[in-house]
């Protein structure tokens, strides 16, 4: 992967990218950070100096602290066109938080034309992770850049003859150095201890935006484990739920700066690995178990109140019959939370065009329909990838 990021600080950027004498360089940067991302993408073609400035790590980080774009919901559509299966990524945005329908959409044709391979695992700060078995791609929704990540050549699990392989990719952000990283956890079964299955795993890290020599680096972990959920990044730490033995749950925590891994014992309860996810609740990591949502209209929420003391709070959520009817007893999956803390539920394995937003503190649920979706009549399958409100100028 080739990078045009300079990693310079503000003063160094100003000195290197001098503007007209009439306008100080630092003022130019302040003006540019307040422009829409689409305008900045056009301004890159003004000159090499402007392109280098806009793609610099300093400007990218500065822009994210200033800009406040409208939140967008990302969906992947699969449809047949002239007997060929095609994929499309769209993003939709309501005009206000109070809207009950979404009608404004943006089609990411760049990704469509390049034949998106695999499925979308998540969206994080304007970056979309697309996984196809052991390979992965990263797509920047702002710059429309799509890169294929290098293969992990030295993994003994990926290249080994194992019947069961679990490969998960997570995008994280290092707030200390202002960099983005992709973490890959590879796991498989290793044997039995009594009646419990044991696992072996590897953890690999790749720096996004590195030069052509960037490679996956293996990082140590105190205990092998089997990941169950997608990663969740909060305040520079990435979390995911895993098994160290079958039905023995732990919360894995990775410091994205130091790349040190630690583990916390999860609450002692039986989770269905298919219907459990991690969400952010009041800036804390939480476990949401929703296996009985469609059947009984109940969920359980555990919130990590104190990581050092491993203290969890537990809350049972009971829905009213009207709330259960709102989902029409269709299987739902959690695809993230909004900036207001609402949990986003989306239909699974269907071509329904709506999401359900659930306010945890208020126990309030509302249905949001997506109107005027492109290729709606042709769509065979749709997947809601996630909710995001970041425009990322980072050059991959």
UniProtKB/TrEMBL annotation:
Protein name per the record: F-box domain-containing protein
Highest taxon listed in the record's lineage: Eukaryota
PROSITE patterns reported in the protein's UniProt record: FBOX
CDD domains for this protein: F-box_AtFBW1-like
Any Pfam family matching the protein: F-box
F-box domain sequence ranges: 17-66
The organism of origin for this protein: Brassica carinata
InterPro entries: F-box-assoc_dom_typ3, F-box-assoc_interact_dom, F-box-like_dom_sf, F-box_dom
